[in-house]
Structure formats: structure tokens, C-alpha cells
Design a protein that fits this description.
HisK_dim/P_dom; EC 2.7.13.3; Helix Hairpins; transferase; 465 residues; alpha+beta; histidine kinase; 14 strands; Beta-Lactamase; His_kinase_dom; Heat Shock Protein 90
Length: 465
């Protein structure tokens, strides 16, 4: 059963156990009513049997049995009960009453009455057997008085007692439900006020909600909402900065393209026109590179793509990327090397974005490495981490600017180059999505930069063999 309302949900879980208790009480009341009805019936039967036994006498050596009307009339309760009785001697001689009234089995005459259940003429009975000594008739003494009553009064008494108990229990349950509803209305009032605060049009939609005016139980919820709003605000601020920076960064190359196109249009000499068109093509390539990186960064942002859990061979992916950049490295006379450890470097993640991460690391290294320099890509493993290292002997990054190079559109001006300032930002987003770490450090000797990426890789999937 699906319960949408919190009020209904709480009411159900409060009243359901209470209803169970009521059912247990009703059953207990039934047992008590049945015991009470048994006791009343037993006392009435015993009183009637005693009355009959006390009227038995011996006249001229013969036992005389007189059945007092009061002994029978005491069973007249208006429920149509039938009464059957018999009086027998010790030898089984019937002195009065019905001849086949059932006797207790087994029954030995004694001083105490015996109560039992039986049936007579296809009617269930509640009976008593009472032995009574007779003075003056030693051979027949004692006599046994058997008297039984049908169960109409007995059952009606149980119903009357049980009906009263059930009515009390139902009234108690209804009163409890009403009090619980009233309590819920007052108890849920802070939650309703919190709802109104969230929906208040006059408030800033992302402004934090106050936590001091809410109950302790609601405080974690409010704190979670505030944390969520804080992350949304941070993301929106980042998007606004990204859009503003992107607009600025795109505007500059577009202006340059328009200027170069206008210059090529005005150029009269073939050499000048060719030079202008070459510059125009170069600017267009840079602009296309920036747009591609912007698209890559948008895909790398949290929530931009559905999470993927693909098995990725980090070494094989890096090798394919290096093959793509081999032409660029040859054209600039850069030694592009690759080292791979014996252990397998299988990780689980988004293969497309992990490839983009390696592309940007290698592209950055080649862009800032001078002609005749070297770039070395290494893949290895340390415990449960797969380690990707890209080392170059370019100008490196000044220590005071290292914390900022992961910012979008940030470029180290002293290094020159034609980068867009988005490469390391893309790397950071991809590594964060893979629950890894990226660090920058200078080489032990000389100049340059070492970028180290550490991404978790399960040992059982990376064992050699």
C-alpha cells in the first residue's frame, strides 16, 4: 500500500498498533465475559440443585422428592432456556426428573459439586452434579441431583458483556484518532511553515533558510536544503562566469577573423593576400579549437552526461592518442615517448571523457614544448591507483600561478603559446568525475612540467597474467 500523505502515514503507524491492542483487549474481554457467564451459570445451577436436595426427605422409610418451583423459576431470565433435572439414588434408581439426563464421566459421589458440559435431546447443556446424604435411608444414600440448563442465557450474557467492552474500545480508538489528528495538526505546523518559507515568492529562491527557528528533527532537512542551494548557487555562478568568459574569449578571435578577412579583401598584391589568408586560416583553426574545447568542457561538467561505467584500458587509450599526435610532434621535432608498466591499467569510467583528458594533456605539452624538446607519457600502477604522467621540458609554470592554472580561460602569459586556457580545466573535471586526483610539479632537474593523474583501478581487474 502506497501512502502519499505524511499525516496519513504517521496516523496509520500510530493507530495500527493501537488497533492491534484493541483486538487483544477484545479477545481478553471475550475470555473474561465467558468466564463470568460460566460463573453465573454455575452458581445458578448450584443454587437450584441445593434447593432440590434440601427438600428431599424420608417418609415412612420411603424417599420423598419434592421439586420446589423456585428451583426451576430461577432459570427464567427471558431467554427461553430449558431446564432438565434428575434425582437418583446411589444405586441409580430414578426418584424424580428426566431419566436420561447425562451424568459426569466419570463421577464419584462426593461432597463437592461437579460442573460439566453435556447434551440432552440434541441441545448443549451446562450441568451440575450434586451428591446429598439422606438420613434414614442408608441403602439409597447419598442421592445425586443432576440439573442442566441450555446455553441461551449463558451466550446472551457473553454477548452483552462483550458488546459493552467493544463499544468502549471503539470509542477509545476514535477518541485516540481524534486526539492524534489534533496533535498532528499542531505538530506538523513547523513543517507547513517550512513549506511556506520555501514557496515564499518574496524570498530569494536560492537564499538559505534559517535553521534556528526549526525543530531539531527538521534541522538536518533544512541544512541539506541549504547545502543543495549553496551548490546550485555555486554552479550557477560558475556558469555565469563561464558564459561571460566564453563570450569575451569568443569575441576576441571573431574580431580578429573579421579584421583579417577585411585586410585580405583590401590587399591588392598576391603576396599580401596570401599572407592574410594564411593568417585567417590559422585564426580559424585556433577558434575551432577553442569551440571544441568549450564543448568538451560542457560535457565534462558534473551532471552534463549520464554516468558511464565502462572498462577502459588507460594504456591503450593513451597509445592511440599518441599515434594521433605523432605527426604534430614530428613537424616540431619533438621527441614524443611512451612508457608502459607491466601491470594492466584498467579503470572504470567514461571512455570518451578519459580520452579527452589525455588529448588535452598531450596537446598542452606539445604546445608549450619548444622545437627539439621532449614529451614523455608514462602509464603505471601504484597499489589501487592507476597513474598517468605527462612530462615535458617546456617553460613550466611559476609556483605562484600553479593553483590558478586549473581555472577556465586562465593562461600563463609568460609562456606564450596558442592555448585557450581550457585544457587543464577539462582535465580537472574529468579526473574529479573519475574520483581521481591531478597534481602539477616541476621535474627534479632542469625546467618543464610534470602532470600526474591518479585514478582508482580495482586490483582484481588489473592483475598481471
Amino acid at each position: 500500500m502506497k501512502i502519499e500523505s505524511l499525516r496519513t502515514h504517521l496516523l496509520f503507524w500510530l493507530l495500527a498498533p493501537l488497533a492491534g491492542v484493541v483486538l487483544v483487549n477484545v479477545f481478553s474481554s471475550y475470555l473474561a465475559a465467558s468466564n463470568t457467564a460460566d460463573m453465573v451459570t454455575d452458581r445458578t445451577l448450584l443454587a437450584s440443585a441445593t434447593t432440590i436436595a434440601e427438600e428431599i426427605s424420608v417418609i415412612d422409610g420411603v424417599i420423598d422428592v419434592q421439586i420446589p418451583p423456585a428451583a426451576i423459576e430461577m432459570f427464567n431470565t427471558g431467554h427461553g432456556d430449558l431446564v432438565f433435572y434428575s434425582v437418583r439414588t446411589r444405586n441409580g434408581q430414578l426418584l424424580a426428573g428426566y431419566p436420561d439426563v447425562p451424568a459426569p464421566n466419570p463421577h464419584e459421589p462426593g461432597a463437592h459439586p461437579v460442573f460439566y458440559e453435556g447434551a440432552y435431546r440434541q441441545r448443549p447443556l451446562h450441568l451440575v452434579a450434586l451428591t446429598h446424604p439422606i438420613i434414614g435411608a442408608p441403602e439409597e444414600s447419598p442421592v445425586t441431583v443432576l440439573i442442566g440448563q441450555t446455553l441461551n442465557s449463558h451466550d446472551e450474557l457473553i454477548i452483552d458483556l462483550l458488546r459493552g467492552s467493544i463499544e468502549q474500545q471503539v470509542i477509545l480508538l476514535a477518541v485516540a484518532a481524534a486526539l492524534v489528528l489534533i496533535g498532528f495538526s499542531r505538530g506538523l505546523a513547523p513543517l507547513m511553515r517550512l513549506r511556506d518559507a520555501v514557496l515564499d515568492d518574496k524570498r530569494d529562491a536560492l537564499a538559505p533558510l534559517p535553521t534556528t527557528s526549526v525543530q531539531t528533527e527538521l534541522r538536518p532537512l533544512v541544512e541539506a536544503l541549504n547545502e543543495y542551494k549553496r551548490r546550485v548557487r555555486a554552479q550557477m555562478d560558475a556558469q555565469r562566469r563561464f558564459i561571460a568568459n566564453a563570450a569575451h574569449q569568443i569575441k576576441t578571435p571573431l574580431t580578429l577573423l573579421m579584421t583579417q578577412a577585411a585586410f585580405a579583401e583590401r590587399a591588392k598584391a598576391a603576396g599580401e593576400r596570401k599572407e592574410a589568408l594564411s593568417a585567417l586560416q590559422n585564426s580559424a583553426r585556433q577558434f575551432a579549437h577553442m569551440v571544441n574545447q568549450l564543448l568538451t568542457l560542457s560535457r565534462a561538467e558534473p551532471g552534463a552526461r549520464r554516468p558511464r561505467h565502462e572498462r577502459v584500458d588507460l594504456a591503450e587509450t593513451a597509445r592511440l592518442v599518441l599515434e594521433e599526435f605523432s605527426g604534430v610532434a614530428l613537424s616540431r621535432e619533438i621527441d614524443l615517448g611512451f612508457e608502459q608498466a607491466e601491470e594492466k591499467t584498467i579503470i572504470v569510467g567514461d571512455e570518451t571523457m578519459l580520452r579527452e583528458m589525455i588529448v588535452n594533456l598531450v596537446d598542452n605539452a606539445l604546445r608549450y614544448t619548444p622545437v627539439g624538446g621532449s614529451v614523455l607519457v608514462s602509464i603505471g600502477r601504484q597499489a589501487e591507483m592507476c597513474v598517468l604522467t605527462v612530462a615535458d621540458n617546456g617553460p613550466g609554470i611559476p609556483p605562484d600561478e600553479t593553483p590558478r592554472v586549473f581555472e577556465r580561460f586562465y593562461r600563463v602569459l609568460a609562456n606564450g603559446g596558442e592555448g585557450s586556457g581550457l585544457g587543464l580545466a577539462i582535465v580537472r573535471e574529468v579526473v574529479a568525475a573519475a574520483e581521481g586526483q591531478v597534481t602539477l610539479r616541476p621535474p627534479p632537474t632542469g625546467h618543464g612540467l610534470i602532470v600526474e593523474v591518479r585514478i582508482p583501478g580495482p586490483v582484481e581487474e588489473n592483475s598481471g597474467g
